[in-house]
Design goal:
- By secondary structure, this protein is an alpha/beta fold.
- The chain folds into two domains: 5-174, Beta-Lactamase (2-Layer Sandwich), CATH 3.30.450; 183-416, 3-Layer(aba) Sandwich (Rossmann fold), CATH 3.40.50.300.
- Helix content is 33%, strand content 24%.
- The protein has 13 helices and 17 strands.
- The protein has helices spanning 21-33, 42-57, 64-79, 85-88, 122-135, 183-188, 194-205, 220-228, 272-279, 296-305, 319-333, 338-348, 412-416; strands at 5-7, 13-15, 93-99, 105-108, 111-114, 146-150, 156-160, 170-174, 210-214, 237-241, 254-258, 286-289, 309-315, 351-357, 363-373, 379-392, 398-404.
- β1 and β2 (13-15) form a beta hairpin.
- α1 crosses α3 (64-79) and α2 (42-57) crosses α3 (64-79).
- The N and C termini lie far apart (63 Å).
């Protein structure tokens, strides 16, 4: 019986999890016979499982592989996340998508793969979801069917239950690299080149206000983490997130804030906007907002326009689309003339970095630009660097280079910092 993931060439992997019915029933019988009401350590649980397997072996012939499989799967079912635990142990998987009892999808090395792995029932999937929610101190049920939380390793989790999810429950897990990503690693992966990296390092050290844009899964959070590594260690940094997922390193004076939904215990909602307002009273040298997606855009712009240094991300299809996205979000929080909003955007952000996926699925920095107001009052982009595709390798990998397309017009902060 083959119960482990197997490599199938360069296309990824599938998973053959279909064990025979007798072994599956034996696994369920062993779990049902265990007294899980007592507090026990992981080692105590494993000792009990071993004893139960030996006992079951007297009436059910089991080979060594069967015993190893049962030991692992029973322990995962009791103390971990059941059938998902094996996927969480694979460092190359960046996204896990569970659509009810349908086969599980994963993203690995930029490719979306369907596995034969699936939950036997919505009840078992519901148990895993409730365990995740409890560990994250969140409540998710029919009256509150949507929840965002995270796993102990920092992975981001989104849950949607019935009646909102028709074919639910839906569970989506976004995983982040176990090892801290660095600029050198991004260069090695082909996400950018040396000259672009040097420019970005200089911009961060000079205190540029930076906005990172792109679509889902293009590496915005990763880029924000990497850029934060160039912030001088003497600065006081305030990070603000909807659900904490940034992995900021080397910042001794770091304050991390996380938004909170209203809960049944009477705790009121605390929004990104609330946290932005209070962060301004915490003597920040630099504010990092995980993502701007609503009314908080106006507070972000106003803080930068009165001298605060900041970095953030936003969903957008290009650097030009960022402007209309920001205009819409500002208008959600305050009625302002569009011209005034555009002036705040142009004077607030020094750099806009756009990321995306190219044809082979790899993530790349596509453009760096500076916003400015032209004579007609419209925002234009002064493009500084742009990725140009030059061809394909035999393995269908995209080849290209980063062209320097212009000279910087926002040099005041560079000059003030003694940089160039």
């Amino acid at each position: 019986m083959n119960r482990r993931m197997q490599s199938i060439g360069t296309s990824g992997y599938v998973c053959d999890w279909d064990i025979n019915k007798s072994l599956r029933k034996l696994q369920e019988a062993i779990i049902a016979s265990m007294d899980l009401s007592k507090e026990m350590s992981d080692e105590e649980i494993k000792e009990i499982i071993d004893g139960k397997i030996l006992e079951a072996g007297k009436t059910h012939p089991l080979d060594l592989e069967d015993k190893k499989y049962l030991r692992r799967e029973i322990f995962f079912a009791i103390r971990k996340l059941g059938i998902l635990q094996e996927l969480l142990l694979d460092p190359d998987i960046t996204e896990i998508m569970v659509n009810g009892t349908d086969p599980v999808f994963v993203e690995k090395e930029g490719k979306l793969l369907q596995l034969s792995l699936r939950f036997d029932s919505k009840e078992k999937l519901g148990q895993v979801i409730q365990q995740i929610a409890a560990d994250g101190n969140k409540v998710v049920n029919e009256s509150s069917p949507i929840a965002d939380t995270r796993l102990q390793d920092g992975s981001r989790v989104n849950v949607v239950l019935a009646p909102v999810a028709i074919n639910g429950p839906i569970l989506t897990i976004r995983r982040f690299p176990e090892r801290t990503m660095t600029m050198e690693k991004l260069i090695g992966m082909g996400a950018l080149d040396d000259k672009v990296a040097v420019f970005l390092e200089t911009a961060v050290k000079a205190g540029y206000n930076i906005l990172v844009s792109g679509g889902t899964g293009c590496g915005k959070t990763t880029m924000l983490n990497v850029l934060s590594g160039f912030i001088p260690s003497c600065e006081r940094v305030i990070s603000i997130e909807d659900s904490a997922e940034l992995m900021l390193q080397g910042l001794p004076n770091l304050v991390r804030l996380e938004a909170r939904n209203a809960n049944v215990e009477g705790g009121k909602e605390i929004t990104i906007r609330d946290l932005l307002k209070t962060s301004l009273r915490m003597r920040p040298d630099r504010i990092i907002v995980g993502e701007v997606r609503g009314k908080e855009a106006i507070d972000m712009l106003q803080s930068m326009n009165v001298g605060h240094n900041a970095m953030t991300t936003v969903h957008a299809n290009s650097t030009k689309d960022v402007v209309s996205r920001l205009e819409t979000m500002v208008l959600m929080g305050m009625e302002l003339p569009v011209g005034a909003i555009r002036r705040q955007i142009a004077s607030g952000f020094d750099l806009m970095i756009h990321l995306g996926r190219v044809r082979d699925g790899s993530r790349k920095l596509l453009e760096i630009a500076e916003p400015y107001i032209d004579n007609s009052g419209e925002i234009e982009m002064n493009s500084l660097f742009r990725f140009n595709e030059t061809g394909l390798e035999k393995e269908r990998s995209v080849l290209g280079e980063w062209e320097k397309t212009g000279e910087s017009i926002h040099v005041e902060k560079l000059m003030a910092a003694g940089l160039r």
